[in-house]
């Protein structure tokens, strides 16, 4: 410890006051501290002072782990969150598996094909997987509709008459529709051409109307003035009272009426319930009828798929004088191409187009 | 637009979200309209009618899911690729880059529809079920003329022809044909394959005209799919009877347009070889008749083929009879024309008859090269002609009109040929597709056919009434049989009635006697009671009716309303049907009356 600068001795009477006793104090403090803490550490051997801690301090460990587990936000965003539902994949697991199987099959088939040396493969070789989604048929109409017996090339008389009657009815319906429909606008109109100058003198309607309208206007004006004069009259107290009374009376009356109506309704509650039930039944029946009718309609006609309606082909039936009973003399009146196309249209596979398609 | 992303302002649900118009769909798929139509047809995606047509009534709507279904198909990508390839080709040609053009032209990308067929018909039965349209279309195009203007190529027509013949050969070979109906439109056939009834329509053997109002591009796209489908179906069917599929045909017959016959020979040969019944004898025969053909394929084919000889063919048919697991129907069909030989005249429709007769076990030949036997063959039993006069008539055979064959087939019995002789107007050709019982009205000829059928069945189990006295005239025999049977029935009825009456009489007598024994005083009463009981016995006939009526009324009353209504509706329907039948009968009566008056 270096020499401590002595302070001023002015006014110090005793020498003790100016002598420092810090070192002694320090020693004492130290010795007491040591005594309290259990001896000075310098004297203790190092073995007793330090040791390897083999016990587990969980708290500490957790702290360390926590420090280590810190995930970047970019990573955490990509991690699975239990509160967010995953978006379902568009390709289901089943189909994924199936596709693999199919691939394997194709390979196997290729080997087979090479064996058969024809380039053809038995597509339906393995029909083991029984559960396949069944596709609904696009139409209830069969692909090949067998014609009625009257359309035979050599029909029996009665069935022929039947079919012929059908065909004739169809034709007549067309004729009637044409006849009974609105008449088309004529292409030429009788009369003379009117000059442009004359057109200004043509009057839209006869002149009689104008006078009456003027009169009407005058009458309206008169009424308006009367009203105005009546409005200016002051309302007397008597009048007001009367009005109030009247209002009250009306209110009471309506209330009474309402109550009466209500009680009546309550009395006729069973009737109402019945009526509702009846209505419901009626509604249901109507719905059922509609559904059935639609089904029926679908059986003979496709749904309206486009701009044009489907028009069924006329029935192919021989006329009475055309029946010869000989296959050789059968008239070549129709081709199947049209029939097949109509069938496609009828089943709704092809959208019907306008009558005169190209050319 | 992906499935999970919905732009603002777009509808989330309802018809507006579920359906798109055709132009929207085209835009979505980014293809042109013709490609879109092709894709839709090939994938089996067809327009639908939404409940609410959001864009108006004059649009065609597709379901959005259908469009996605098309979008995920690899075919879409393939079509795009082909389109770009076409562009390259065009460019090379325009730049006169000959090398590149040639190289590109020879390596054009192509596509196959196998996967689509498997996708649309996961099982073979599904394919069979949907074969109606396919067969009709293929048969139609087999008969159409090739037309440059409509893009109908010769190659495709030939392919269709081949496919249709293959199908017919299979059906004829396995005797699966069930019904034939000749209408004005064409000929309807119905076959039963693996329990599925397949109906198809073929055109008449006449010049086919192509009408204008048919969209042939659409038809051709359908045909493309159907060709593939039918090829695979044929493959499967041929393999099921142990025959290699793409059949190798005798080019000579093919050149003569007798593919069907060639095919049937091929089938016979193949099945025989499969059964390993190749005999030296046949080969010996074969060597003699060997045509000078050096083709290896032909040699392969020919070496088991017994030749254009009826005996050998008969042998073949018998051989085929040894097949196993056949149902009743097939057996019946197979034996219909057994031991019969047909010869077709020049003027009859050969295609359909060549198909139908072998399908029912007959042997057939025709006029022309490559036919199995000549017209002069003595063993021919029937000659099919459609001409009023014949040049030379063989007495050993019957000359019938072609309709006879079809009617026999439909009735499943050999009909008497009298009505079908040359120069006569044959009896009406009835539709086998009509259920007469359900319809309620049975035409005359159907009734006679029915009677004949019953008689034929009875002949197999001879009834005591039938006496086989003149064997030359089977028809008379049959008719007699029917008459006999009817008479026997009547007699039996009479006998029964008599017996009941007798018994009644005896009972009465007995009762009376007993009554007399008990007490004579009671006789009067007894008699009275007897008379009363007699009256009672007489009455029951009307009474029974009354009771039946009452009971039906009772049950009607008891029934719930819904059922009663249904019953009433059914009755009304029945009445209507009955009225219809009555009308037909009335008409017929009138017609007959008119004819008789005319005759007078």
Structure summary:
The complex is a heterodimer of chains A (359) and B (600). Chain A is built from eleven helices and no strands.
What does this structure look like?
The complex is a heterodimer of chains A (359) and B (600). Chain A is mostly helical. Chain A contains eleven helices and no strands. Chain A starts with 21 loop residues before the first helix and ends in a 13-residue tail after the last helix. Residues 275-324, 461-478 and 518-540 of chain B have low confidence and may be disordered. Chain B has 25 helices and nine strands. Chain B is extended and about 120 Å long. By secondary structure, chain B is α/β, with parallel strands linked by helices. At the A-B interface, helix 6 and helix 11 of A face helix 7, helix 9, strand 5, helix 11 and helix 25 of B.
List keywords for this structure.
heterodimer, A: about 350 residues, mainly alpha, about 55% helix, elongated, B: about 600 residues, alpha/beta, four-stranded parallel sheet, 25 helices
Write the layout of secondary structure elements.
The complex is a heterodimer of chains A (359) and B (600).
Chain A: H1 22-37, H2 46-49, H3 58-69, H4 73-78, H5 93-116, H6 157-180, H7 196-201, H8 209-232, H9 237-267, H10 269-300, H11 336-346
Chain B: H1 15-18, E1 19-21, H2 22-29, H3 33-43, E2 61-63, H4 64-71, H5 74-94, H6 98-106, H7 114-120, H8 124-129, H9 131-143, H10 154-174, E3 177-182, E4 187-193, E5 196-202, H11 216-240, H12 251-255, H13 259-274, H14 280-289, H15 296-302, H16 310-320, H17 328-334, E6 341-344, H18 350-359, E7 363-366, E8 382-384, E9 398-400, H19 402-411, H20 436-439, H21 444-460, H22 474-518, H23 522-538, H24 540-558, H25 561-599
Parallel strand pairs in B: 6-7, 6-8, 8-9
Antiparallel strand pairs in B: 1-2, 3-4, 4-5
Helix pairs in contact in B: 3-11, 5-6, 9-10, 9-11, 10-11, 10-13, 10-18, 21-22, 22-23
